[in-house]
């Protein structure tokens, strides 16, 4: 076969003035003949100074390493911060539950309910932060289970009602048609999606009302 053979090697070269250069040696061996008569006909080659290219590649690699290290540090910080905040929040929520069982004054009970609902909202934000760090680390898990639809919607509505009231907005939930009494999903992730969507709607609504419209569609694949 007369097919040529190519070679390429990169070298570091120290010049006589002690400066460092990088070169790329490329060569091609040209053959003639076939079988036992195949012989090298000639070798052609070039030497290319790639010092600037090598410096640029090293800079890119260094920047990549710095960015990856910063990203790891951020994820670790988010995880640690979320854990440190969750511990006292759990205590606050626990004492709110204790107070709700011992108070009889309606106004006091209403205040405790607001504390509990806002505490749940803050815990949800903490969970979102933890999920962000898990997503970046590729460790986010989705766990499916059966959940009662009315209970899930009632929990979200109770929490969002507090946020809407704080902005003097009307918040309501409307079920457009009959929906399943139970669904198979990850209740935590679904609750997060609903809270984030409704929370943004409340945040960017200056006046008027916010409505959660619930519908059921059967999709056959």
Write up this protein.
- The chain is an alpha+beta fold and 221 residues long.
- The protein has helices at residues 51-102, 106-137, 149-166, 187-203; strands at residues 5-14, 20-32, 39-49, 145-148, 170-175, 182-185, 209-214.
- Strand 2 (20-32) and strand 3 form a beta hairpin.
- Helix 1 (51-102) packs antiparallel against helix 2, helix 2 (106-137) crosses helix 3 and helix 3 runs parallel beside helix 4 (187-203).
- The model has no long low-confidence stretch (mean pLDDT 84).
* Number of helical elements: 4
Mean pLDDT: 84
Which stretches are low in confidence, meaning pLDDT under 50 for 5 or more residues running?
A: none
Q: What structural category arises from helix and sheet content? A: alpha+beta
Measured between the Cα atoms of the first and last residue, the distance is 55 Å
Strand content: 15-25%
Strand segment count: 7
Q: Specify the helix fraction band.
A: 40-55%
Radius of gyration: 33 Å
Order of helices and strands: EEEHHEHEEHE
Choose one word for the global shape: elongated
Spatial order of the strands forming the largest sheet: 1-2-3
Largest sheet: 3 strands, antiparallel
